[in-house]
Amino acid sequence: MQIESIADILDFIKTAGEMALEGQRKLDYFQRSYKADGSVLTETDKKVESYIIQKIGEAYPDANVLAEETVRDFNHKKAFTFAIDPIDGTDVFSQGISGWCISIGLLDENLVPIAGVIFAPKLDLLFFADIGKKASINGVEIKAPICQECLSPKSNIMVSSRVHLEIDLSKYPGKIRNIGSAALHLCFPLIYPGIFGAVQSPVVHVWDIAGAHAMNLSVGLDFEYLGGGHIDYATMTDGSSAIDFILAGTQRRIEQLRDLLAKIE
């Protein structure tokens, strides 16, 4: 099987977004439940995921599917893998907040993210990176940010919600931001000039980050571990989380963040 484009995903991603919005409008905060790892789960997560898996299965029957709420066997011999998070940022979703999205990433046979769709309907943001093409936001091509050589008190970084408990941020001179969704955190440096980069906790899975990684790679940015090295998705195909904190940005920005940040012992 050869996949040359995933543009047809856009045909149903907006429907999935409407399903999620409707679920959020009807959701009572006390209806949410918790998984074994302590993360939040709602019935909307399961409903939206089931819909997306059905549509992707119809369009790409020979591809692997890794999804947050549905356990599936992973076949290393298959050429393509879809990673699906039906509601990335379920905690804020369940509280009626806007910082959540639907995230879909496509990885090739070497488990390199090559395409993705990230849709945040409450924020009216649709990121799309097709195979071999640069990412766009709401149909407008994303330009790689001009690399700032120096951090300043005006610089912003996006972080996951518990990073301040796990990373010493005292040497970082700027502002810390969090919106709720890992995928959005990792994409915001692409579209907001004031955001220098992103720091993501290891408590993250392939379906959380593969789509965002594809966006970044398509315009010349990347993800690396805090301790060095590129993201190894082979360690995550069984549902495991990342092996280290993740830094996102241009190569220069990643190096600067690595020099400033240290794990709290």
Structure write-up:
By secondary structure, the chain is an alpha+beta fold. It has 2 domains: 7-141, 2-Layer Sandwich (Fructose-1,6-Bisphosphatase, Chain A, domain 1); 156-263, D-Maltodextrin-Binding Protein, domain 2 (3-Layer(aba) Sandwich). 29% of the residues lie in helices and 25% in strands. The chain has 7 helices and 16 strands. It has helices spanning 10-26, 43-59, 90-94, 163-166, 182-191, 206-218, 251-260, and strands at residues 33-34, 40-41, 64-67, 81-88, 101-107, 113-120, 125-129, 136-137, 140-141, 156-159, 167-168, 175-177, 195-200, 222-225, 246-249, 262-263. The strands form 4 sheets. It has a 7-stranded mixed beta sheet with strand order 3-4-5-6-7-8-9, with helices on both faces. It has a 5-stranded mixed beta sheet with strand order 12-10-13-15-14, with helices on both faces. α1 runs antiparallel to α2 and α5 packs parallel to α6. The longest helix has 17 residues, at 10-26. The radius of gyration is 17 Å and the shape is globular. The mean pLDDT is 91.
